[in-house]
Design a protein that fits this description.
By secondary structure, this protein is mainly β. The protein has one domain: Immunoglobulin-like (Sandwich), CATH 2.60.40. Helices cover about 0% and strands about 50% of the residues. It has no helices and 11 strands. The strands form 3 sheets. It has a 5-stranded mixed beta sheet with strand order 5-11-10-7-8, with no helix packed on it. The protein has a 4-stranded mixed beta sheet with strand order 4-3-6-9, with no helix packed on it. It is globular and about 40 Å long. The chain starts with 16 loop residues before the first strand and ends with a strand.
Length: about 150
Amino acid sequence: MIMLKLCLNPKRLLAPVVVWAVGGVLLVISTSAFGQAHVIEVVAGQDSRFKVAGQAKPEITVKAGEPLLLRIDAHKGKSWNRNGAVHGFTLLHAKDHAKVPGWDLELQPGVQEFNLTAPASPGKYEVLCTVICSGDHEGMRMKFLVVP
């Protein structure tokens, strides 16, 4: 019988790990090998503006096809939809303004998280609000760049 002591120091891990015991064999696999989601945090403000921390003019850059966790903190503007949505977050192709499938989101007040996949095609995109949230609604836009 072989005894194995596994010591994992959580302060030294670069990524979370998964541990399995399979047929007497201990497997330790970093979850980064499975491709953790790129976390993007956005504020949809009561002033009808998208905001990204540390950016004067918000812009999101992602890699084509990468998994994303979009975390949006939505604040009620001057008006909102009957269903309670206070803002929208819709991704459009910059060239023809066609909607990107799966990226037409309605935001309720508070923090919401969306598991999405970045568009597969590199290029320029645009995020816009699709809920008439105030008189400044038309200015609620943001650049979204997909790189190879």
